[in-house]
Amino acid sequence: MLYQNKQDNIDFHKEYINTFNFNGKDQLLLLSSIKNMNFPGAIIPTESNYYICANSQKDWSVLSSLVKSFVGVSYSDFIGMKSELNTGSKEEKYLLSKNILFISSISIPNDDLLQGNALKAFQTLYTTYSYSPGRSIEMSEYIDSVLENFVTALQIKDIDTAQKIILNIKNENRLDALNIKFMQIELAYSINDWNAIVNDNLITHIINSRKPLKIRLHIIEAFYYEYLEDAIDDSSLMVIYISKIRSMISSLLFKCPANASIAVKKVYAIAYLNDDIGYKEIERIIVHIDNGLFKNELQLSLNKKLTTDGPIKSDTNTSHDDFISARAAVIDDNNANTIETHMLVSTKAENLDKKEQLELLIDDIIIENTTLPINWIEWLKALSNENFTKSRFIAEQALEEWPVDELLRDTTDIKTISSVIISIEEEFALQRFIHSLPLFMEACKRSTYFPNPLFLQMYTSILEIITVHEVKDLNTLLVSQDIVETSLKISPSEDQYNYILSMVESIIDKANGKNFIDWFLDYAELLISENTSDMDTRNKLLEKLLVKVYSYREWLDEFHLKFILKLAANIGIEKLFENISFEDDMIVEDKWNKYMNKTIGIYTLSENAARHAKEYLEEQINDVNIILNHDKAATDALRNLANTSDFVVLVTQSAKHAATGEIQKILRQKDRQPLFPIGKGSSSIISSLLKDLT
Q1: Are 520 and 482 in contact (CB under 8 A)?
Q2: b vs e for 170-195, b when ≥16 Cβ sit within 10 Å of the residue's Cβ?
Q3: CB of 382 within 8 A of CB of 388?
Q4: Nearest C-alpha neighbor of 85 from the set 71, 68, 102, 73
Q5: Helix (H) or strand (E) holding 628
Q6: What is the rounded distance in angstroms from the CA atom of residue 414 to the CA atom of residue 408?
Q7: Among candidates 622, 514, 593, 600, which has minimal Cα distance to 560?
Q8: Which residues make Cβ contacts (< 8 Å) with residue 322, sequence separation at least 6?
């Protein structure tokens, strides 16, 4: 559906069919998405294109992810991002007149086979999701088991089974087209079918897209064996490289891993000799190159170039040069302060002895005895390495430096993230993860695919970690609430919903003390605000939660009691608290006088909580002006809030982003400080203002 009002969808559907004379069964099936209340947005076919439309960020995230997985680059030009409407067709002009917030055109090449496959893929997408919305999440579970079977088939060299698995996935349109290509590359690699890799019809697209490390190395190796292995001499080797390989794989040649195959190292060495890559791209394999990858003039040329460009460990006279080079890397790191410069320091330090490394430490550079990660998956895996002591520091920088979209639109990567999280066992690794969890969740939120039904597996893994290990610190519990809120926004099935609630109940049971009062009420408010798949189970948990809060009666403020009554009335259990009375000593007439005739600005991304807090404060305080803002960027409205408010409540439990940073910058210029609630619900917001009175 496109609009909240059911009749608006029906009217749009009827008008569109009448305007453009649609009567084909296949087209009418997809057009019914306009009025299907279970479907996120709509799929609108035309004679030349398809259009996907949505009127909320949530629906767009779900729909674009589904189209990317079911249709993908195999059949269309759609890569998951919006494309501008520029064909000038009458259908486009009509759609633009409807002021749809999110709309993207998808073109299919003029090929009968591709056109037919694309239509089938769209129909499968629509029927699968519309009749069972939870299937978009179950899809990842299905793919998990299929991928495991595929890996097993390759391990035992059961090629027929591996081929059938790929064929079944293609027929069902259940996996992103690039992931299918990656599986085909793995299959070809396992049987040394280099030609199948090199001459794949999408090889250029594969080379220029994000891909796992092993796929990148498989492609490089395939080019070596297909073209270079049989070269008769140095001269022909270079000619072949320049004429057939260079333009194709140059974008793949960066940071050669030390454990790469000899074939891959040879390609890197040849590219280095041709000045296609620099010394830094081969630093980790210098020893192998220097020891002799080739047995002819080519090796002599390499040794000469290496001597000129960088240090060679076998020459003891270059020790001083090694230290100078490492020292230069330290200086560069101090200036740039990026993960890449940290990695260079670590790499340079490997060439030094312990004494020289200690000299570098004088500059407060901590040299890791481990390779620094280059994305969030590697970061998660590195947590179990005792030497990875800079995990939090790297996470802080990763939030700004590592693009997260590429990682979180890949079903296989999401599965890997979930598996790595749930496999964390060591206490020190767990503490590292928990310490950096707000940063990791903030990175997920910055994805254009957020929220995404396929993320639910990852969110559940994090909640399981918090539950199983009985994590009780308040910061982590606040993050757990954030994860639950996000999970509920992507409409989990009843079983998934109940499992999430079971973990919430376990987390809440283990949290005790007056410091958790506002957090408890925030959680109750969240559960009531979000849609539920099982009303009875949710209400039982809410009753248990509110009774627990009331057990802290001696520490509750008047607004806490009113909030308990309001939440209880929402689920019909107000009689449990009919003995609540508001004693005279609890109500101090001038308690809120500080805020009379003042402006209070509340910045939060939780709109329901902000609205509830505003309603309560306006009831309690005479002539108060409450300004709410939920913008994620530094907008004029947000700046106005910071400039005109006498008091600013800044709701953030995670890393700073553009909006919160702008607010704090303006307040610093005014020599004022914001109020930081302990949680993100209305109870925490009100408490922060109440505490500021003391």
Answers
A1: no
A2: beebbbbbbbbbbbbbbbbbeeebbe
A3: yes
A4: 102
A5: strand 625-629
A6: 6
A7: 514
A8: 311, 348, 351, 352, 356
Write the CA distances from 446 to 424, 441, 470, integer angstroms: 24, 9, 28
Contact 376, 404 (CB under 8 A): yes
Other C-beta atoms closer than 10 Å to the C-beta of 328 total 13
Residue in 256, 234, 244, 350 with CA at minimum distance from that of residue 302? 234
Amino acid identity for residue 281 in this structure: E
Two tokens, residue 116: 């037919």
With a cut of 70, list the residues of the chain below it in pLDDT: 23, 73-74, 79-80, 131-145, 171-178, 209-210, 288, 290-291, 310-321, 325, 328-329, 331-344, 346-347, 350-351, 353-371, 406, 409-410, 449, 582-590, 653-658, 694
Q: Determine phi and psi for 104, rounding to 5 degrees.
A: -145, 140
DSSP 350: T
Contact 520, 508 (CB under 8 A): yes
> For 44-61, what is each residue's pLDDT tens digit?
998 778 999 998 877 887
pLDDT at 52: 92
Distance CA 605, CA 565 (A): 25
Tell me the C-alpha distance between 321 and 252, whole Å.
30
Supply angle C-alpha 271, 272, 273, rounded to 5: 90
Q: Is the four-CA dihedral 480, 482, 485, 490 of positive or negative sign?
A: negative
Kind of pairing, strands 42-45 and 647-650? unpaired
Q: How far apart are CA 132 and CA 352, in angstroms?
A: 60
Pairing relation of β-strands 625-629 and 49-54? unpaired
Helix (H, G, I), strand (E, B) or coil at 106: strand
Q: Give the helix/strand (H/E) hosting 599.
A: strand 599-603
> What radius of gyration, in Å, describes the C-alpha atoms of the chain?
30
Q: Which residue has the tokens 């292995």?
A: 229
Contacts of residue 299, Cβ cutoff 8 Å, sequence gap at least 6: 292, 293
Nearest to 77 by CA among 68, 66, 65: 68
Looking at residue 355, what is its pLDDT?
67
Helices (H), 286-426: 286-292, 297-309, 319-336, 339-349, 354-361, 376-382, 391-401, 405-408, 411-422
Count Cα neighbours of 258 within 13 Å in the Cβ-side half-sphere.
Answer: 7
Q: Which residues contact 665 (CB under 8 A, 6 or more apart)?
A: none
Q: How far apart are CA 447 and CA 64, in angstroms?
A: 13
Contact 446, 404 (CB under 8 A): yes
Instruction: Spell 498-536 as b/e; 16+ CB within 10 A means b.
Output: eebbebbbebbeebeeeebbbbbbbbbbbbbbbeebeee
Considering only CA atoms, which of 486, 690, 504, 659 is closest in space to residue 593?
Answer: 690
Query: Around Cβ 355, how many Cβ atoms within 10 Å?
Result: 8
Burial (0-12, 13-18, 19+ Cβ within 10 Å), 562: middle
User: Which of 556, 554, 530, 558 shows the shortest CA–CA distance to 542?
Assistant: 530
Tokens 């037919």 locate to 116
Q: How many CA within 13 A on the CB side of residue 28?
A: 8
Q: 55 φ, ψ to 5°? A: -120, 20
- The 3-state DSSP class for residue 259 equals coil
| Residue 508 amino acid letter | I
CA distance readout (Å), 614 to 37, 498, 618:
32, 31, 6
